[in-house]
User: Which sequence fits this backbone?
């Protein structure tokens, strides 16, 4: 076994280990499912008067790509988040708790539409919720 | 009720004009903040039997209604409990200001039904009690702080006045009014879809105050523990159980702890229905009172 084989084997084992529990990621339909959920979520967000004004002139296509990556990572999927830190992307936008929660509701509706079980939804929301500290400018 | 609702509308319109006035002062207008409804479904709790936001038997650390820090929330509720020998009807109003302060009013009417005659009070004799409550959120966010064990904590008081002063004093109560003080800690474990609440109440109340306050056995404040556990079945439905300790101040009738098992349903942010099976123990010498609890809440 040469060094390349050994490295490949190690990588494979590491990946297998990292993704030993990918049940949650599967409940979201993996990458394709996540892309659909985020598309539907942004349809909701842009139609929601509570959230739409925050996305005037926003690069929605890019935001959706980064959000799919981010959620994929949170679900222990095989992704890397290449976006900027949450505080950087949200600061100065005057986001309050009501707007943050409105976006949560738009995400819940998208997950419902795509058949993500309620308790799996809550596992994702539990990981997203503390981000309110970086996202909101005030309560 | 219609009048109260129109008063609430008037109040929210007044707040609306204030909010729009202040926000117009900024050059770069943020999106208009709705006046209410910013909280997530069911995270304002339901109305507990004394009018505070919480479970059915115990207050939680949440502030009632669906208002966030720049919003108002409010609701009206009606609750009916019927055991083998008694009935309790309660209705009340709860207002949540800026997700910080909760004010509540409740009126309870305890109907002794047939037991009233056996107790020498007369059939269908009623004890009426008014309760004014204040609760202040001290720290934490029960819903969003999912990366720490720190719960949401609130402190509150409930001032209670029983209108049947002569009767409650005749059975041994020291007073017909009293104030309960409590601390509540509430935590949602979202990944487990589980809500936990613990409340420590300092009270002299006999049977919630329906039989007065303090007694011939003790007229001191007693620390009593209360707890709720709720499991979220769906976004709209929670099931759970509660436990509430009560003092035992009167020698003529022992008092026991209360329990319930409940299901709460909130089809939207304006209405919720709660049904429970509740066990209240012996009440005024009549043994082992248990039965159905139903409660409806409407608001914003």
Assistant:
């Amino acid at each position: 076994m040469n060094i390349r084989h050994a490295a490949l084997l190690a990588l494979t084992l590491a990946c297998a280990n990292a993704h030993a529990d990918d049940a949650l990621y599967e409940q979201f339909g993996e990458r394709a499912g996540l892309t659909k959920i985020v598309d539907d979520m942004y349809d909701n967000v842009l139609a929601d008067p509570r959230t739409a004004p925050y996305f005037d002139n926003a690069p929605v296509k890019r935001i959706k790509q980064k959000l799919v990556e981010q959620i994929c990572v949170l679900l222990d999927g095989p992704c890397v988040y290449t976006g900027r830190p949450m505080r950087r992307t949200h600061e100065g936008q005057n986001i309050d708790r009501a707007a943050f929660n409105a976006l949560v509701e738009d995400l819940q509706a998208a997950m419902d539409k795509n058949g993500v079980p309620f308790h799996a939804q809550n596992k994702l929301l539990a990981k997203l919720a503390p981000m309110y500290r970086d996202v909101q400018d005030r309560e | 009720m219609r009048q109260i609702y129109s008063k609430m509308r008037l109040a929210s319109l007044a707040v609306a004009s204030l909010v729009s006035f202040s926000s117009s002062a900024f050059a770069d207008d943020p999106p208009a903040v709705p006046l209410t409804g910013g909280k997530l479904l069911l995270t304002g709790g339901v109305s507990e039997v004394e009018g505070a936001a919480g479970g059915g038997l115990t207050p939680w650390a949440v502030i009632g209604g669906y208002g966030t820090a720049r919003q108002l929330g409010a609701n009206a509720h009606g609750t009916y409990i019927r055991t083998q020998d008694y009935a309790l009807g309660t209705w009340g109003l709860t207002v949540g200001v800026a997700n910080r302060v909760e004010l509540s009013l409740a009126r309870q009417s305890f109907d002794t039904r047939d037991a009233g005659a056996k107790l020498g009070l007369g059939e269908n004799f009623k004890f009426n009690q008014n309760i004014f409550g204040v609760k202040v959120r001290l720290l934490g966010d029960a819903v969003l702080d999912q990366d720490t064990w720190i719960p949401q904590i609130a402190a509150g008081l409930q001032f209670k006045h029983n209108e049947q002063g002569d009767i409650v004093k005749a059975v041994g109560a020291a007073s017909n009014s009293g104030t309960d003080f409590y601390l509540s800690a509430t935590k949602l474990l979202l990944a487990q879809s589980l809500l936990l609440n613990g409340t420590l109440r300092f009270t002299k109340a006999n049977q919630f105050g329906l039989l007065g306050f303090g007694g011939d056995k003790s007229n001191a404040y007693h620390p009593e523990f209360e707890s709720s556990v709720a499991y979220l079945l769906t976004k709209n439905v929670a099931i759970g159980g509660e436990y509430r300790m009560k003092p035992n101040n009167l020698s003529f009738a022992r008092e026991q702890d209360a329990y319930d098992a409940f299901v709460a349903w909130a089809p939207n942010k304006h209405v919720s229905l709660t049904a429970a099976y509740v066990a209240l123990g012996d009440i005024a010498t009549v043994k082992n009172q248990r039965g159905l609890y139903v409660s409806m809440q409407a608001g914003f």
